[in-house]
Design brief:
35% helix; 316 residues; three-stranded parallel beta sheet; 18% strand; alpha/beta
């Protein structure tokens, strides 16, 4: 954390123009950090000049400027050049990694805690997160000067309370709630519910949904943890409560006042019946807990969607 009269700490945020990234950048600014953002516009809209529209709005909300460079993290030469420009000494050995609950695969028990076995992932996305987790843990074991916090996200939804920034997936949304909100606003005809024959109360899949602002604040707590020279630590970021697909549809109908049509289709390969967190370790060691409930998640999501019916592109 920065102190009065001291230079604010710089934090490199990769993919910082995206949904989770932009909300995290906002929280970093509010907490006194100086985020330096790189993004390749894979899932972001260009605003004025070279600045992504999401970050232009973050600047409006915070009254602070954001340092941004268009860059692909796979461009090693460009990344090296950035490090030399923003750091007096090229020796950063503190890392917060955006992992995922998908590393747990099919749950052997619920709720999922950080001791649950990982690696039997049911989709390529989860497998990629698992591989990177393994590499980071090996690095921290081999070189004790490294510190890393691996954050296993559950399902982020919602938007900033202003409705000024939110989730704007390019193309057809892969996740439930942006699709639901696009049906509610009239961009899509109906929601496909992938299976209603799971062993759950209403037959649809159960997930742990977390407000994106709570998730973003989890990163601030992780940065504080790194100050303790913590080695490699792993935390779930979730609420500990699971909701079914149909419960989420009903919650969004309540928030929007709109009827959301849906049709049941075949299950998707790789989906599991239920997945929700035990987030107690994050509370114990990070002092972090999710503060915003389901109603607030859906209200904020609807405010964003209503104010931006076509996403960022409608005003960019």
């Amino acid at each position: 954390m920065s102190r009065a009269g001291a230079m604010a700490e710089k934090v490199l945020v990769t993919g910082g123009a995206g949904y989770i990234g932009s909300h995290t950048v906002l929280e970093l600014l509010e907490a006194g950090y100086t985020p330096v953002v790189i993004d390749n516009f894979h899932n972001a809209i260009r605003g004025e000049g070279s600045m992504p529209e999401s970050l232009r709005r973050v600047q409006e909300l915070t009254g602070r400027s954001v340092e941004f460079e268009e860059m692909d993290i796979l461009d090693q030469a460009a990344l090296q050049c950035l490090f030399k420009k923003i750091m007096r000494v090229h020796g950063v050995k503190n890392l917060v990694f955006s992992s995922s609950a998908t590393v747990y695969g099919k749950p052997q028990y619920l709720p999922l805690d950080e001791s649950h076995p990982t690696g039997s992932c049911t989709n390529p996305y989860g497998k990629s997160k698992f591989f990177i987790e393994e590499m980071i843990q090996d690095l921290c074991q081999a070189d004790k000067t490294w510190n890393a916090v691996l954050l296993r996200y559950f399902n982020p939804i919602g938007a900033h309370a202003s409705g000024h920034i939110g989730e704007d997936p390019q193309g057809i949304p892969n996740n439930l709630m942006p699709y639901v909100s696009q049906v509610a606003i009239g961009r899509r005809e109906a929601l496909n519910v992938f299976g209603n024959d799971y062993d759950t109360e209403d037959g649809t899949g159960i997930r742990d949904y977390i407000h994106v602002v709570d998730l973003a604040k989890g990163h601030i707590a992780a940065l504080r943890k790194l100050k303790e020279q913590c080695g490699c630590r792993i935390y779930n970021l979730g609420t500990g409560t699971g909701y079914s697909v149909l419960q989420m549809v009903q919650a969004m109908e309540k928030a929007s006042g709109k009827k959301i049509p849906y049709k049941v289709v075949a299950r998707r390969e790789g989906d599991v019946a239920a997945c929700y967190a035990n987030p107690s370790l994050a509370l114990e060691e990070l002092g972090w807990t999710a503060a915003l409930g389901l109603d607030r998640m859906c209200e904020d999501l609807w405010r964003w969607q209503k104010q931006n019916p076509s996403g960022f592109s409608s005003q960019a």
